[in-house]
Amino acid sequence: MRNTLVVANWKMQKTVAEALAFAEAFLARFPQRSGQALLPGADAAPEVAVAAPFTALYALGRALQGTPVALAAQNVHPQAQGAFTGEVAPGMLAELGCRYAIVGHSERRNLFDERSDFVAEKAAALLQHGIDPIVCVGESVDQRGAGRTLTVIREQVAGSLAKAPSAAAQRLVVAYEPVWAIGAGVSATPEQAQEVHAAIRACLQERFGAADSEKIRILYGGSVKADNVSALVAQPDIDGALVGGASLQADGFAELVLRSGDCS
Ligand code: PGA
Fold first, then answer.
1. What is the pLDDT of residues 180-224, one digit of tens each?
2. Pocket test for ligand 1, best of 10, 102, 177 (most atoms within 8 A of CB)
3. Which are the contacts of 38, defined by CB distance < 8 A and separation ≥ 6?
4. Measured in angstroms, how far is the CA atom of residue 6 from the centroid of ligand 1?
5. Catalytic residue list contains 105
6. How confident is the model at residue 43 (pLDDT cuts 50, 70, 90)?
7. Greatest CA span in the chain, whole angstroms?
């Protein structure tokens, strides 16, 4: 069974002080937590990670140390070091204790022109440095309208995972985020999302074989909220959520996490 994963994607939001205030308020909602789990004893206790801006990672990482909430970055450069002004290397994120890093988010693909081959380099570099990549894919509204959703998704999945070694397949996380649902207030329906997640699972199976592909978590993202998360994760191939807007308030995000495990 795949353990549900809920990832907060703060995007370009929260100063260090705001990130620390969030951590304190969020953890206070889980007073019974043990070192390993937010909801000890719950059958479907979800794993939680917070993808903060680079500037908050050091302080937030210290605040989350010894808690069940994992630290995540929102981007990385694939090179280990060098003349790449303004970029951050995978080893730098590993030093801060990042367990995950998002790569290929549609905002990076669309606003910063990132292509799947560059995303593939980033994912491979993260794996080498002990950080699990959360590889995002998603179609635009025009691509969906033209009936090209599954073709686009298959291309993005194959391209973005092209450099991931099979031995590390189980550490991959894929996030399906239809661009038209991000920040839109209305998510894909569970059925729409499941159709794409099943197609992604089939791509993973082709690439890594049946056994490994069954272990890779595929998250859904795009207007996930406390009141739609449980219907989404109830789908057979939806293994968690990547959450933007609804992850910014500690109480609201705690509620969403509780409902993702159907534990509320
Ligand atoms: P949203 O963002 O939850 O605000 O739609 C999701 C994302 O972009 O990761």
1. 999 999 999 999 999 999 999 999 999 999 999 999 999 999 999
2. 177
3. 30, 45, 46, 48, 68, 69, 257
4. 12
5. yes
6. low
7. 49
